[in-house]
Each structure stands twice: as C-alpha cells, then as structure tokens.
Design goal:
The chain is mainly α and 254 residues long. It has helices at 2-18, 25-31, 71-79, 85-93, 95-103, 119-141, 160-165, 171-174, 177-195, 214-223, 237-247. The chain has 2 domains: 2-139, Cytochrome c-like domain (Cytochrome Bc1 Complex, Chain D, domain 2, Orthogonal Bundle); 160-247, Cytochrome c-like domain (Cytochrome Bc1 Complex, Chain D, domain 2, Orthogonal Bundle), CATH 1.10.760.10. Helix content is 49%, strand content 0%. The two termini are 38 Å apart.
Length: 254
C-alpha cells in the first residue's frame, strides 16, 4: 500500500512539474521566508525549533545531530525514510498526514504543523533547498580568507532589548488600514499555523488581544517566548509592527 501511495505522490510531483510549474529557486527563497523562524540553511546554519536544512536532499530523516525530532520522525528515519524531492513534496503538503501514511500509523504526528498547500510553492522551495545546499557545499570547499582580510561591520548594533524599548504605538498607527491589512497578510501566511482556529492542537494558546498592550505584543513577536520562535530574523521591525496593528485591530479574527 505504501509503495502505491509513494508512486502516486511521485507521479503527482512530476506531473505538476510537466504541467508548467517551473522550479524557481529564487522564488523559493522568498517562500522559504515563512520557514526561517524554525529552520536555517547556509554556511552558518544551526538547529533552531527545527533542524538546520543543509544537505537535506539525500539525508536520512531525523538524523541531524542535536536537533529535536518527534518520535514519529525518528521512527520514519529508522524505517529508512530518505529525503528526496519527491518525498519532500509529499511531506510539505501535510507533514502529519505524510508520516501517518509512511508509518502506517494513525497516531503518528509531525512536530511541524506548517503546510505548503500550493504546488508551485513546494516545487520552488525544494528547488531553493537544492540550490542552497549546493552553494553551501561549494563555499565550504573554498580556501579560508587571509587573516588580514577586512571584515564587514554589523548592520544592527542595537540589542534585542533596545529595539523592544524603542517601540511606541500611536492610535494613528494602530488604526491605519494599510498597517492593519499588511499585518493581516503576514498573520494568515504565518501565525495561523499555531494560533488560528485550524492550528495544530495544543500548539499555542488562544490570543486575547484586549488584554495585551501593543508593546507587549511586539516583544513577544520580535523576541519570541518559550516554544514560540523569534521573528526578528524573519520579518523587519516595520512588518512586526504591522502584525501588532492587526492583532490590536478591531477586525482581528484569528
């Protein structure tokens, strides 16, 4: 049964590619922005909420040292799951459903609730992961720079606490429809996976915006909190402020 499902998934993957959805790594990099709160890729990539994604293609599932995996993902790796473009396409569509099919276990769960529902988004992200992995491997083989080579100064000199302390929210900003709509777009692209009414059960508490001051909301989104990743490396300060405007807006509907 599993082989049949895998063949169907693979056929769907190649059929969608032949239907005209070009795998665009550059577009995939933009889509991957949604994943950066939990995953890193590149020369200095580290494990975050999820494992780093260097050399993902061809890697056994659940095999990154130091990364935290669900028991189901560990079981899939032990069963022989190897990440390929086809397998990733199926997994990114619905991680938990994919693992339940692969393991033939209705109770299996993925720690990742995020789904990429659009075929073109999945293909583009997979293309980006393949390209970024290749570039990372090539960079690691290059000679180290000379000791006297100049280094670039950091662009952000303020600490996280200083950025948070700088934030003030006027009524005009919070009531601006442009800020509300921009924040709403980010919310439904990212935040509903944990906080929305269709969110992964038990993933995050239901929000009660009336109890929160705007500065408090900014702090939580920018810095992160407990299992919630920090979004400061994914969205700009202005974008996070717009998310605050949406959460504090009268039309907020998670």
């Amino acid at each position: 049964m599993l082989k049949i499902v895998s063949l169907i998934a693979a056929f769907g993957f190649f059929a969608s590619t032949s239907a005209g959805w070009a795998q665009d790594a550059e577009t995939g990099a933009a889509v991957f922005k949604k994943c950066k709160a939990c995953h890193e890729i590149g020369p200095d990539a580290k494990n975050k909420v999820g494992p780093m994604l260097n050399d993902l293609i061809g890697r056994p599932a659940g095999s990154v040292e130091g990364a935290k995996y669900s028991k189901s993902m560990q079981s899939a790796g032990e069963k022989g799951l190897m990440w390929s473009a086809e397998e990733l396409n199926g997994y990114l569509t619905d991680p938990t459903k994919y693992l339940r099919t692969y393991l033939d276990d209705k109770k299996a769960r993925s720690a990742m609730s995020f789904k990429l529902k659009k075929d073109e988004d999945r293909l583009d992200v997979i293309a980006y992961l393949e390209t970024a992995t290749t570039e990372t491997s090539a960079a690691s083989q290059e000679a180290a720079p000379a000791e006297d080579a100049p280094t670039e100064a950091p662009t952000e000199t303020r600490t996280v606490e200083e950025v948070i302390a700088d934030q003030t929210f006027s009524a005009a900003f919070l009531e601006d429809p442009t800020n509300f709509e921009a924040g709403k777009e980010i919310w439904f692209a990212q935040c509903t996976h944990c906080h929305g009414y269709k969110a992964y059960p038990g993933k995050a508490p239901k929000l009660k915006p009336a109890k929160y001051k705007p500065e408090f909301v900014f702090k939580r989104v920018y810095k992160g909190f407990k299992k919630m990743p920090a979004w400061k490396d994914v969205y700009t300060i202005d974008e996070i402020r717009q998310v605050v405007a949406y959460i504090k807006g009268k039309g907020f509907a998670p």
